[in-house]
Amino acid sequence: MLSDAIKAELRAIVGEKNCLDRQEALVAYSYDATPMQQALPDAVVMPASTAEVQKVVQVAARHQIPIVTRGAGSNLCGGTVPVGGGIVMSLHRMNQIVEIDEQNLTITVQPGVRTVDIHQAVEAKGLFYPPDPGSMVISTIGGNIALNSGGLRGLKYGTTKDYVLGLEAVLPNGEVIRTGGKLMKDVAGYDLTKLWVGSEGTLAIITEAILKLIPKPTTQRVMLAMYADMEQAARSVSDIIANRIIPGTLEFLDQGTIRVVEDFKQIGLPTDVAAILLIGQDGEAQIVDRDMERIAEICQKNQAVQIKVAKTDEEADEVMTARRSALAALSRMRPTTILEDATVPRAQIAPMVAAIQEITDRFGLNICTFGHAGDGNLHPTCMTDARDHEEIERVEQAFEEIFAAAIDLGGTITGEHGVGIVKAPYLEWKVGAAGMEVMKGIKRAFDPHNLLNPGKMFAKESRNRVVVNRA
Amino acid sequence: MLKEALQKNLDYEELANCMRCGFCQPACPTFRETGYEAASPRGRIALMKAVADGVMEPDQDFVDQMNLCLGCRACEPVCPAGVPYGQLIEQTREAIEQVQEHPWYVRLVRKTAFTHLFPHQRRLNLLGGLLGFYQRSGLQTAVRKLGVLNILPKQMREMEAIMPDASAKSLTDRLGATVIPAVGERKRRVGMFHGCIMDVLFQDTNINTVRLLAEAGCEVVIAPDQVCCGALHAHSGEREAAKSLARKNIAAFQEAEVDLIISNAGGCGALLQEYDHLLHDDPEWQEQAKWFAARVKDVSEVLTMSAEPQAWDPLPQRVTYQSSCHLRNGMKVTKEPVNLLQSIPGATYVPLKEGDRCCGSAGIYNLVQPEMAGSLLDEKMGHVAATQADILVTSNPGCLLQMKAGIKRAGLEDRMEAVHLVDLLARVQKKEAN
């Protein structure tokens, strides 16, 4: 609980309307898009400027109150659920595009700008900001930076970290610092910019960002390739890359997903195929045409049973429908949808999909897999019901084994969703005990009193789990 | 108590189906206006669920937040999980209504409107007659000159100013028959759903609808026993009253033995099409309700059904289209009105930016939530002005009134007019057809 005196201090900073402690507000800011995670904050604060953020942090530091910074609350790791209570600080009012610099090809934004608004603003000028997380129509750039969001274009264009050139942030002690700049080269000291990207609001509160832009590709084309065997699809992926082609999009749906999508949309997908690849290329028209031809040949060589190259925009739209509908189709099956993001080197996709299938069958669950085949980032998605505690227990065990399988194949527990609460118990599996110590040391250096987003990234001891020995 | 009423009314399965992805938020007008999580579909569902789970007491903030929702249902088509938000908000409002203590004058207005007025078409027409007298006798001019209206809130003054001429006669009186034969070969027999307000304030639109339908090969029946659709009741938490109206309408149209039931108001059509859901717990009426719901079509759907498109007179003007939310999000009719506009020779169709977003009319929302409605309308009129259209077309009476008010408010009266799609089509209907 916050005392009335502290609330008065906060209200003096952001105004009466922007510091809320009524029940309705506390409930509305108690969750994000993560299933089964909810905790009430003590207050919701909505600052409009860096100066206001700074003053709020100073109050919080003085009274030792936790702060959970939040954008749209669209993350899937529980990253913005205020498990330690305290203040939820929503930055949605800081939503201005400060500048698009066409000389330096940068955009400067406040953290509350929606990702899709950045896309639209820069594309209107023939420029391109590639990261396109699935939630981009609602997610804010601040959230994208905090979680180092990926998306469909990760294979060719990289993820958020590859586009952040400089940041302004408020430190837990209330100091404001700037890192980087409109600079492609900058080796002055430790790279704090990159350290903060993906730090999940545990080290500093980002209040402004300078992002790198590139010229917008002129042409885009897509195709579908269907396979009777998962191995053949996986080999096609490896062969495309081995042939020195990096597609703009290289997505994959497994049989379970295909069946659910077809059931939902009736778009004529064959439900007896084991896998569908959705492959897109962008760039100069000539090069795109050449690549698409070669990709089709490679798929053919790997026994694709059917290949559909979209010739018109409408056809492209149809082709994309299968992938776009995946989440909607899956989430309609059962009340609770748990979307994970175990990631492996792309050459290990086939064994990883096989492992997920085996684990799913063994635990008697409903898990379908789709995802970004090109970068090995899979989305095993479990359709379940949070109210069925026995089943949820099996779901947890199954995902635990899926994470372990990913690590065994040289992969990671999370490719793009972040650690937050839900992956915290498994972080040590990926980074090791020594790695955990380094990370905790970094956290202590920035935030000795553990005020920024407590309970995230590092699991409490009670929730620690023993690494499964799969040897 | 409200908590118990909510726990009893709310469909918990559907609350659980919301996976909180937040994809509804960019579609929600009140969220976009405020940026406030609680003022979004995801937020409102979370509040409902918190009450259902016993985590939260439904206090006045809760009630206010539920009332701030326009009920435009723009969140439904974009929801991956297919959560029927419109039903959830109606269940909530019904619960609020059950326990709400209104001040005496609100009780009086509600009782008059919902019990004594809307269900009785003759009384509405009678009222229309009084309104017509007010408009035509010089009383309206006198009242306006005397400034008497200045005691009304701004929003109501704006509405008074654009109120169309009311009709005291019934639709059948004016048509002179209850069955209007098809022009040429009869392709189908359709029932014209004339609506309550629609038939008083926009009766010409109803007449035009009948004529266009006849021209498109429909034998049009005006089922005499039809009543108000019940949408205003359902949206205002008077669900039982809505059900009783639904039963009357189902009986009236079954009696008329029609192939299709035609609405020219998105707000009515969406509820008519959901009569099967409205009566889902009434086993006696389940089958008939399904019969009815499956037959409901918007007039624009029927006019684009015929194989040979109708020929229109040329109209050398710029036209744009503001969608009715319930036509778009409830009935899922999006392309037909635009296709019809594009089929008029000489007319230039200009898409309206965010023409799929609520105009703020939303039943009686513009009267009870004037601040939010006003800010939505101002934003809307900015986009409308940018189209430089001569004619702003819409497809629902509430939207039409709001657009007329908006045009006046934005000072665009000299540049454009707001017209119901049907009236525009009647204007360009080939003269020899009449």
From TrEMBL, chain A:
Ranges of residues in domain FAD-binding PCMH-type: 37-216
Keywords: FAD, Flavoprotein, Oxidoreductase
A Pfam family matched in the record: FAD-oxidase_C
Cofactors demanded by this protein: FAD
InterPro entries in the record: FAD-bd_oxidored_4_C (IPR004113), FAD-bd_PCMH (IPR016166), FAD-bd_PCMH-like_sf (IPR036318), FAD-bd_PCMH_sub2 (IPR016169), FAD-linked_Oxase-like_C (IPR016164), FAD-linked_OxidoTrans_Type4 (IPR051914), Oxid_FAD_bind_N (IPR006094), Vanillyl_alc_oxidase_C-sub2 (IPR016171)
GO molecular function: FAD binding; oxidoreductase activity
Family named by the database record: Belongs to the FAD-binding oxidoreductase/transferase type 4 family.
Name of the featured protein: FAD-binding protein
Lineage of source species: Bacteria, Bacillati, Bacillota, Bacilli, Bacillales
Automatic annotation (TrEMBL), chain B:
EC number: 1.1.99.14
Domain of life: Bacteria
Pfam families: CCG, Fer4_8
Keyword Metal-binding: yes
Identification of the protein by name: Glycolate oxidase iron-sulfur subunit
InterPro entries per record: 4Fe4S_Fe-S-bd, 4Fe4S_Fe_S_CS, Cys_rich_dom, Glc_ox_4Fe-4S, Helical_ferredxn
Cofactor note: Binds 2 [4Fe-4S] clusters.
Job of this protein: Component of a complex that catalyzes the oxidation of glycolate to glyoxylate.
EC primary class: oxidoreductase
Catalysed reactions listed for this entry: (R)-lactate + A = pyruvate + AH2; glycolate + A = glyoxylate + AH2
Residues in 4Fe-4S ferredoxin-type domain copies: 8-39, 59-91
Cofactors that this protein relies on: [4Fe-4S] cluster
GO molecular function: 4 iron, 4 sulfur cluster binding; glycolate dehydrogenase activity; metal ion binding
SUPFAM superfamilies linked: alpha-helical ferredoxin (SSF46548)
Record keywords: 4Fe-4S, Electron transport, Iron, Iron-sulfur, Metal-binding, Repeat, Transport
Record has Electron transport as a keyword: yes
